[in-house]
């Protein structure tokens, strides 16, 4: 996945991270999917226990984007998550149609996630958030790029190629340049995905 984004610095207010000792704000995981145990390392993906999620989120629990992704796919069906994770499936693409559309797209070890609207009158996809990640052979996930207010032609090959830009007169694309900023946008994105409960939306899922 080639992300040809022109960096635009984003001003980020300094916020103290939540105390690691505040257990009530910790997101709980389940062991419902054997290969994604709740005890897995922080950079690995986990299935979030949705029963207690809302309360934890209100208390400031931090969402990892990879956790939101696998939780969404697992709640579509365990078979859907299995297809996404399978090394024998080269390409997996799921588009969920909520208030904003969600795309979860994997090619090999590269993953693209986007929350977007299809502005048909403007003939563009407008992405509120995008993230590019790489899944390591050990199961760890690594953020490679994040951005917001990014527009592209409504052609999926252009999206995968990273052909994003600002849309004149409407908004200016923001690209995070540091790990803290990337993690922050990814967490906001993960929270939006979970709150949108996309697994219950209309969806188009293909794998090859």
TrEMBL record:
The domain of life is Eukaryota
Protein name per UniProt: Uncharacterized protein
């Amino acid at each position: 996945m080639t992300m040809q984004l022109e960096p635009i610095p984003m001003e980020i207010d300094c916020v103290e991270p939540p105390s690691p000792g505040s257990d009530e704000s910790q997101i709980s995981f389940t062991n419902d999917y054997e290969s994604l145990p709740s005890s897995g390392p922080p950079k690995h993906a986990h299935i979030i226990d949705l029963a207690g999620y809302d309360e934890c989120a209100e208390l400031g629990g931090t969402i990892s984007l990879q956790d939101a992704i696998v939780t969404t796919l697992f709640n579509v069906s365990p078979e859907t998550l299995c297809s996404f994770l399978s090394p024998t499936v080269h390409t997996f693409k799921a588009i969920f149609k909520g208030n904003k559309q969600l795309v979860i797209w994997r090619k090999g070890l590269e993953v693209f996630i986007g929350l977007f609207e299809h502005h048909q009158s403007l003939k563009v996809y407008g992405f509120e958030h995008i993230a590019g990640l790489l899944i390591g052979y050990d199961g760890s996930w690594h953020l490679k790029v994040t951005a917001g207010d990014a527009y592209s032609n409504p052609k999926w090959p252009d999206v995968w190629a990273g052909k994003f830009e600002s849309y004149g007169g409407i908004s200016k694309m923001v690209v995070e340049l540091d790990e803290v900023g990337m993690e922050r946008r990814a967490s906001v994105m993960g929270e939006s995905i979970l709150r949108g409960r996309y697994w219950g939306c209309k969806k188009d899922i293909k794998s090859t």
